Amino acid sequence: QLQLVESGGGLVQPGGSLRLSCAVSGLSLDYYSLGWFRQAPGKEREGVSCISSRGDSTYYADSVKGRFTISRDNAKNTVSLQMNSLKPEETAVYYCAAEGNAYSYCSSSEKEYDYWGQGTQVTVSS
Fold it and tell me: What does the pLDDT read at residue 7?
């Protein structure tokens, strides 16, 4: 059973940066793709970014391309999301998730993910 724990959320001013991390325990990450999702108040959860099990394929939502970077370290069982130039509308709870998938792709659909963290709050405000 995988357990995922996010960290790194907080309050940041518009235009600022945050780095989210997700520590995974329970199983080897070698056969899991990993994703970051977010849910703003009153809105549905949306896919932000994901990375394949070997790190050779990534996905970014159009709204974050060029500003967010996802990375993973299978040896340390972690996945990170570097977020730059943050906007107030990106205030949300951010979740990491794992999908059993050893192929060179990852899914942006939350329906494909089997394990979820508890989320970390990101607030972008002056």
Answer: 97
